[in-house]
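User: Can you predict the 3D structure for this chain?
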Amino acid sequence: MFYRARIFKDGDGWGVEFPDCPGCLTCADTKEEAQAAAKEALELWLESALDHGELPPKPKAKRGEAIHLDAKLGVAIQIRWAREEQGLTQAALAKTAGLTRQQVAKLESPDNNPTLESVGAVAKALGLHVELVA
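Assistant: Here is the predicted structure, written as structure tokens:
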């Protein structure tokens, strides 16, 4: 899963912004450093949104450099999107998936290390297909 970043020359350095994530900005001295800083800034911005109970925006930008998310964060965001789209509470999803509400909350947390079993149970309950791609 990825978001698009706009990386641009800014005075003596380089700036990075994410069209889909208002206020998510970073800068660095070189373009290479800006590319590395982009991933960290994006992931921190998305983690903050999740931690504050906000639904992160879906990536829509078609132009810019693709900044790929850590797999755990990507899974947490996609579970949250799917649950919200279906109008389910964490408790309702947990009941359908045969898990506890706390387990679902952990799956939606960027700090969690989910098992494939719990991800699979939630995906099935949401009518989603999980596929690992190398």
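Strands lie at 2-10, 13-17, 25-28, 65-68. The mean pLDDT is 92.
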